[in-house]
Amino acid sequence: MHTTNYFDTFIAVAPDTAATAATEPPQRPTPSVAELTYRMIAEHPYGFTSDDVIFGVWADRRGIAEDERESARAEFFAKGQPCLRSSDLGKRYGWGVHADAEGRVAVVPMDSDEYARLASGEGGVSVTRAMRSSR
C-alpha cells in the first residue's frame, strides 16, 4: 500500500510561486481540489494526515458514501498518488504544509514567523518544497 504521508517535515512554497502572501483558494460553486484541501486542513490543524486529506478530497468530489470509503481507500492507495507537494496550496496560494511527528498536517502562511522558523529547519524538521509549476 502506498502513502503520501510525511513526518516531521515542512513543505515550503514552490520556488516559482507568484504568491507574495498566503491567500485562501477562491470559493466556487463546485469547490476546487485546492479549496477542499485548504478547508479540510485549515479547519482541523493537525487533525488529519496527508493520506486522510488526499483521499477525503478525492472521495468527497466523487460522492463516495461513508460505508464504502474503507474499501475505496484501500483501492485508491493500491497505486501511488500525488502528495501535498503537488498541491496548489504551495504552488499558487502561498501556504506551507507542516507534518508533525505523527504525520498530521497543518497549513502555515508564507508571510508568517512560523513559516520562517519551519522553513529554516528549526527544531529538526526536514524541509522540502512544493513542486514547481513549470519545468
Note poorly predicted spans: none
Question: Helix-strand pattern, N to C?
Answer: EHHHHEEHE
Number of helices: 5
Quaternary class = single chain
State mean pLDDT (0 to 100 scale).
Answer: 94
Largest beta-sheet details: 4 strands, mixed
In short:
This protein has helices at 33-43, 50-62, 69-76, 88-91, 113-119; strands at residues 9-12, 95-99, 105-109, 126-129. By secondary structure, it is an alpha+beta fold.
Q: Can you describe what's shown?
A:
- The chain is α+β, with helices and mostly antiparallel strands and 135 residues long.
- The protein has helices spanning 33-43, 50-62, 69-76, 88-91, 113-119, and strands spanning 9-12, 95-99, 105-109, 126-129.
- It has a four-stranded mixed β-sheet with strand order 3-2-1-4.
- β2 (95-99) and β3 (105-109) form a beta hairpin.
- α1 (33-43) packs across α2.
- The chain starts with 8 loop residues before the first strand and ends in a 6-residue tail after the last strand.
- The relative contact order is 0.30.
- The mean pLDDT is 94.
From the structure above, extract its key features.
135 residues, 4 strands, 32% helix, 4-stranded mixed sheet, globular, alpha+beta
Secondary-structure blueprint:
Elements: E1 9-12, H1 33-43, H2 50-62, H3 69-76, H4 88-91, E2 95-99, E3 105-109, H5 113-119, E4 126-129
Parallel strand pairs: 1-4
Antiparallel strand pairs: 1-2, 2-3
